[in-house]
Each structure stands twice: as C-alpha cells, then as structure tokens.
Design brief:
Layout lengths: L1 E14 L2 E6 L2 E7 L6 H13 L3 E2 L5 E3 L7 E6 L21 H18 L3 E3 L7 E15 L1
Parallel strand pairs: 3-6, 6-7
Antiparallel strand pairs: 1-2, 1-3, 1-8, 4-5
C-alpha cells in the first residue's frame, strides 16, 4: 500500500457539489492499494500513519504523532499513486489493485483509522472527487508499505 500524507489545517472532499468528508487539524491521507496488498499491508500502513511524529511540539520540533495532537483525518482513495510513467507519455496503472480488492482494503484502513481517531472523514471510492486542503507547513510525506 502507498499513502501520501499531508499535514493539514483543514481539508474536504466534494462529490457532485456536496461535501462528503472533511477534517480539521490533522492529516489528509491519499491511499493507494497495490495488487499484492492485503489486510496486513493496511495494518502496517495505518500503524505507521498513526504513530508518525510529524507534528510540532512546544519547541517547534516534529516530535508529536497524530494521537499526541488529537488530530483528525481525511482518507481519500487514489489508485493513481501506483502510476508508472517510466516509459512513454501515458502512465500505466497495472500495479494498482483491481477495484474490488482496492475498495475492500481502503475501507479496512479507514476502519482502523476510525478505531483510533475521534474524527475520520472519507472520500467516495471510485468517485470523481474535488479535494481542497490547507497544507500545514507545507509538510508532505510519501509512505510505501
């Protein structure tokens, strides 16, 4: 699994003109599922996201985790994280999991987040989503599990 994390002040997802998910101070998490991923991959990914020390402490050092700051999360499915553009001008997405597998694992990682975080917003799997956010820093992290 892959995730692109953005530390945010706020973020939201709009589908068909309606806000379907949002979060305040915390993380916008773009989640990609690969063909070889399973529940164990999702658990490892969420464990890393939840414990990653990327929030500033009182001294301004990035020593605090999402849990330490009581942060919120917005989870967004994004198969394009598995784009391979090394050859040609059109990306290949063959490394991305089929929709059924990807949706199941996206839902699973969201359920893990909902277990540990007081507010978790979600995008809509497979929908044309409009994502807006205010990146805090900016601070962006790429995770591969």
């Amino acid at each position: 699994m892959r995730a692109l994390l953005q530390r945010v002040l706020e973020a939201q997802v709009v589908v068909d003109g309606e806000v379907v998910g949002s979060c305040g101070h915390g993380l916008a998490v773009f989640v990609g599922v690969g063909t070889d991923d399973d529940e164990r991959s999702a658990e490892k990914l969420w464990h890393k996201i939840h414990g990653l020390r990327i929030f500033a402490d009182q001294a301004g050092k990035t020593n605090l985790s999402l849990a330490d700051v009581d942060g919120e999360v917005l989870m967004i499915s994004q198969f394009t994280l598995f784009a391979d553009s090394r050859k040609g001008m059109r990306p290949s997405f063959t490394a991305a999991a089929p929709a059924q597998q990807a949706e199941r694992l996206y839902d699973y990682v969201c359920s893990l987040a909902e277990r540990d975080v007081r507010h978790v917003g979600r995008g809509v799997f497979g929908a044309d989503m409009k994502v807006s956010l205010i990146n805090d820093g900016p601070f962006t992290i790429w995770l591969d599990m």
